[in-house]
Amino acid sequence: MLFRSMLSKALGADSLENVIAATSKTVPNPYKEQFFKSMDNRKFSFDYVFAPRNEKEAETVFGRAGIINKFAYHMHPELSKSGYFFNYPSEFSIVYYFNGGENKYVRKVSSCVLESMSVDYGAEGFTTFANGMPSYGTMRLNFLELELLTTQRIYQGF
Asked: Contact at 8 Å (CB) between 117 and 140?
């Protein structure tokens, strides 16, 4: 860096790039290649709309042992017995099915964790059944794939 600065000052230019441009009568290509550094893990979002027809169906979705609480439970880590550490949260295997078998036309998903979830209990207003159980809800699940994919895995359908 110091050499660049000294050379630029000696030649009366504000940067080495300008010195090179002035002496060679060329400028750098703005469409030059970038260096590959790393990739991010893939992320997936799934939205589910629940509109139970009665209190029993609402219990299956919104109750303590319901679908929404099951996802919330498996999204979070468990505190170790000592209380000093967290055990990893659950991993998910997501598979797309068609006619009773895995759909070969949809890209596979590697092991995932549920990174976040949100529940909207009423896009048009909050309504409940007589027992207070919501009568509508939209759940968004945001998954993070644990594996960084390579060309070999893409060739395998991921």
From this structure: yes
